[in-house]
């Protein structure tokens, strides 16, 4: 294989990766979500969503209703949380605060999620700035691939190496 073929294959792989990345970002703009896809990482929402389900999000401007399932991020925590709204309060200026609970959990999120995982012990509600998006649909178990890649990092590197090898061997 000569240098020209190596450069061509490298550019083809890079164009494919950039195309996927740009499509994901365009979809994020269309749905008004910073992250239009998330993978369920725990069993707290069973039976509605199982570990490994891929959730499709959007972020419409209308208020969130009781029973809806938002995805939210608590400050100082990188992993988003997927739980159902069980109570809400609307202020006079139009702001909304939410109380959430996992369908498979015994108690609401005030004690464990809001207080223990957040440095501010006075946090009692999910506020609008915490909302990443709202669940609009899902695909069962297709996110298990992501979970395996996180749980077994060597698998991730082996897969990337195999893709690079295939890209360079086949024209």
Automatic annotation (TrEMBL):
Protein name: Signal peptidase complex catalytic subunit SEC11
Catalytic activity: Cleavage of hydrophobic, N-terminal signal or leader sequences from secreted and periplasmic proteins
Family: Belongs to the peptidase S26B family.
Protein purpose: Catalytic component of the signal peptidase complex (SPC) which catalyzes the cleavage of N-terminal signal sequences from nascent proteins as they are translocated into the lumen of the endoplasmic reticulum. Specifically cleaves N-terminal signal peptides that contain a hydrophobic alpha-helix (h-region) shorter than 18-20 amino acids.
Top-level taxon in the UniProt lineage: Eukaryota
Protein keywords: Endoplasmic reticulum, Hydrolase, Membrane, Protease, Signal-anchor, Transmembrane, Transmembrane helix
Localisation per UniProt entry: Endoplasmic reticulum membrane
GO BP annotation list: signal peptide processing
Self-association state and partner proteins as the record states: Component of the signal peptidase complex (SPC) composed of a catalytic subunit SEC11 and three accessory subunits SPC1, SPC2 and SPC3. The complex induces a local thinning of the ER membrane which is used to measure the length of the signal peptide (SP) h-region of protein substrates. This ensures the selectivity of the complex towards h-regions shorter than 18-20 amino acids. SPC associates with the translocon complex.
EC annotation from Swiss-Prot or TrEMBL: 3.4.21.89
Membrane topology: Single-pass type II membrane protein
InterPro entries (UniProt xref): LexA/Signal_pep-like_sf (IPR036286), Pept_S26A_signal_pept_1_Ser-AS (IPR019756), Peptidase_S26 (IPR019533), Peptidase_S26B (IPR001733)
Transmembrane helix as UniProt keyword: yes
Record GO cellular component, one term: signal peptidase complex
Keyword Heme: no
GO molecular function, one term: serine-type endopeptidase activity
Residue ranges of the TM segments: 6-24, 154-170
Originating organism: Modicella reniformis
Main subcellular location: endoplasmic reticulum
